[in-house]
Amino acid sequence: MSYRESQLQHHQLRNDQQNATVAEISIICSESQAMDHVKFTQMKDGDAEDYAFLTEHEIAYTKGTADRLLGALVSLDESLSGYQISRLGHSLQAATRAENDGADIDWIVAALLHDIGDIFAPYNHDEYAASILRPFVREQVTWVVEKHGDFQLAYYGNHVGADPDKRNAYAGHPYFDDCATFCERWDQNSFDPDYTHKPIEHFAPMVRAVFAREPYDPAVIREREREPLVRS
Ligand SMILES: [Fe+2]
Ligand SMILES: [Fe+2]
Hints:
InterPro entries: HD_domain (IPR006674), OP_Dioxygenase (IPR052567). It holds the Pfam family HD. The chain is mostly helical. The protein folds into two domains: about 5-60, no CATH class; about 65-220, Hypothetical protein af1432 (Orthogonal Bundle), CATH 1.10.3210. The protein has helices at about 5-20, 20-35, 50-60, 65-75, 85-100, 105-115, 125-135, 140-160, 175-185, 200-210, 220. The longest helix has 22 residues, at about 140-160. The chain is globular. The site of one fe (ii) ion has 4 residues, from loops.
């Protein structure tokens, strides 16, 4: 079983529990209330009661994902000094530009979170952010976030000994132009201390709405479908 398949199976288990009848849930809860931790010390020794208990905990924990991400975004305010604005300011500028372009909620939230990987993954921050977004946004948006680091090299690669044409490896990809537009209109230009951006509180409901979606919902992922970045 692939990792993706195991994730889908895991989420199906969660869905089954979320769709359980009231009577079934009350049984699970009454069993869970009797526990404050699992009985096992090795996963292979766990039983149904242990895993029902853990699943309930995970469902409650995942509801806080959006607010944990918003908290992490605020901590970006203290990272990567040297620019004229903070990483949080850059993220808010990018999201504001996306909204001003009339982009949809997937694009706006992606613009806000596209550099969140800078905290823990400075050498692959694009892949890190894409992994966070992947279950909850359109495939097109995840691809663009995942590749934006390579595309950004067009603007500065020649100054740091990197290949400014690295994006050419993706020539012909259905989302190539989208990533180029993302970088040109929302990313490379969002280091301007004079640009007026919207506050994080403005974007918080959008982040919560996106991360409240059903993970990997095909109606959200919409494989190979494109939405424009610029509508206005
Ligand atoms: Fe980036
Ligand atoms: Fe960026």
